Amino acid sequence: MAQTAPPTVTSGLVFDIQRFSLHDGPGIRTTVFLKGCPLRCAWCHNPESGAAMPQLAYYAARCIHCGSCLNACPNGAITTDEARVLRVRCQSCGCCARVCPSEALETVGKRQTVEEVLAVVLRDEPFYRTSGGGMTLSGGEPLFQPGFSLALLRAAREHGLHTAIETCALAPWPEIEALLPFTNLLMVDIKVVSAAKHRRLCRADNALILRNVRRLCETGAAILLRAPIVPGLNDTAQDIRKLGDLVLSLTGPPPLELMPYHGIGSGKYAALGMDYPLRALRSPENLGTICERLEGMGVRVVRDA
Amino acid sequence: MERCVDLVARGGGIPFFFNDEALVPALVDKGVPLEEARGYAAIGCIEITLPGSANPHAVSHWINVAKCLELALNGGCDLRSGERIGPEGPCLDALGDLEAVQAALRVQLEHAARWAVYGSNAAEHAHRFQMRLPYLSLLTDDCVRRGADIVEGGARYCYHSSAAMGIPNAADSLAALEEAVFREGRVQPAEMLEALRTNYQGRGDLRLWLLRRAPKYGNDEPLPDRHAADLTRLYCEMLAGYRTPSGGRYHAHLFTFTLMLPYGGMTGATPDGRLAGEPLAYSVSPVQGRDVSGLSAVVRSLAALPHHLAAASSSAILDVDPALLEGRGRDGFVDLLVTAIDLGVGQLQFNVVSADMLRAAQEDPERHRSLCVRVSGFSQQFCLLDRTMQDHIIARTKHRQ
Fold it and tell me: Residue B11: is the preceding peptide bond cis (ω within 30°)?
């Protein structure tokens, strides 16, 4: 079957809109987080972004044990025991979250229209004008909702905004290509270069990713590569050498930014009833060395000045 | 501006930012010629005066808008003591709709303003008999020419300054009432009134819903921001109608100094989920801990207020986590300030501290003696503040990424 550009859709699943973002592209930005991702990286700090449907989160520390949720649930999925939510019964309908007074129960992911998202994004237009900022699509994976992403980027462009996306590039090429006319900057993740390791750590193959990255660089689009550095998982000398070799083999080659692992998202796993095997992991201490090694190979490494 | 932000980032210096674009038009609106308005200066904290040509009343009186709302909801009586201190009127359970609540608030506010002005004018009369200021009069324009002491109206500008307290709390409260009582019917007016009278005893669920789920000023939310703007405009316009014994004007002043603590102590439970006695917000800053949508949203909320009507200045302190100002954050911060000025925000001050730093200083004051914070219009060593003020500053949102 021939692959074609995605049809434009008017609404999508959004799990957060973060204003005053300073690290998702140039200037002051609003980052729109889209739900759904084809990867399941072991270190993911947005575990709520993976599933392409609304999910119920329960933050035990906020609960005041008022019992409002017990009556509200039409599926009998709320219990009085510690976990509060019987995941097998929960339909993520949000009835309990609506009555929860303390925000202990929250529905993550809401269907929003392009107009609704843009209305929030445009509130900070004066800040974009001063700072050269704009809108960034992140996730999850924006390309998991290609039609919605396209519609958002196009609408933002129509309002004269600078647009950027953060992507893992795991999508059919025509879907990526369709976004290019409406995207000023693509921030593309290179998680692991070794195919076997990528399958193990991210639960997907990276052949299509690498092919897409190569092709993207050939289009001359503005690209910033980003590599997460996770201690003990993808930071061996061999990993770094392969990363450097890959970057240098690309047309351009584009600059590379290193993203040190942090455990900030670990609390969210428990809230979603998910297991988090990396609990004991610390942030990398050898980032400077890795930077120098890559620069020694001739890679242009971006450092946060 | 970049050098200013570097100073902010270092902490310790803690500069103010005054916005000519808001303050000069505010003075012109009160009858000061443009050329003279441009020469304004700050007195002690953030109070605006015209140096050398005005009788510099920093603050003539304080009016607690949150308390006025308390009285409006409880028929003119104090929620806790039941004592009548405002004009008699219906209670919340008989008010019917939000417009009636706003009208009742207006009645209480007018009553408070009339007494506040009466007191300030009486004090000015008393000064003529007991506190003449010949030396200051010699140094102030027009006193010599008119042959009148500064307290007799010799100065070219004889304004008083009327400081408003608790507008953010009152705005959050009106938004909560509008949303929970009058729009959704989540709680009946009588039930709400009872919860306020009993300081939410046994109604922790309702209180938390009001506190966490009702929209709050400081997040660029249309509902509370509109209430904050309406209340501010009402206050400024109400005070603009009064005159001093020398024929001078009353300048609205959106400033609490450090009195959001004692005035909060005198204010009963409010419909925004605040318990009786808890501190009010600092000046027009969002209520401590409630601005959770990022700095641009706070600036948007601040910009919703009519700063150009507050001739004695408006004030806001925003607390920023030091990590936000690192690296690229510094440029973002410069752009934030420039945009705030473009949007007409009157005045801004910043604390660059984290809650952890402040808690550490509370635990071990000896080792943190040099830690300075912006308290109100002034800075002080954190360890020298009393515990209530320390807790208030810790409770303010520390904006970060």
Answer: no
Q: What is the predicted ipTM? A: 0.90
Burial level of B342, CB count in 10 A (0-12/13-18/19+)? Answer: middle
Q: How many secondary structure helices (H) and strands (E) does chain A include?
A: 11, 11
pTM for the model stands at: 0.93
Euclidean distance between CA atoms B52 and A304, whole angstroms: 49
Please state whether beta strands A134-139 and A162-167 pair in parallel, antiparallel, or not at all (unpaired).
Answer: parallel
Q: What is the pLDDT of residues A199-243, one digit of tens each?
A: 999 999 999 999 999 999 999 999 999 999 999 999 999 999 999
Cβ of A64 within 8 Å of Cβ of B205? The answer is yes
**DSSP structural state of residue B19:** -
Residue A113: its pLDDT value, please? 97
Average pLDDT, chain B: 94
For residue A111, give every residue at least 6 positions away whose Cβ sits within 8 Å of its Cβ, in sequence order, or none. A11, A12, A13, A14, A54
Nearest CA in chain A to B342: A126
Residue A13 confidence (pLDDT): 97
Q: Which residues of A touch B218 (CB under 8 A)?
A: none
**Consecutive H or E run containing B120:** helix B98-130
B12-27 pLDDT tens trace: 667 889 999 999 999 9
Distance CA A39, CA A189 (A): 12
Report the residue from A64, A126, A304 with minimal CB separation from B208.
A64
Environment class of residue B33 by beta-carbon count within 10 Å: exposed (0-12), middle (13-18) or buried (19+)? exposed
Are A231 and A197 a contacting pair, CB within 8 Å? no
Picking from B204, B296, B329, the nearest residue to A127 by CB comes out as B296
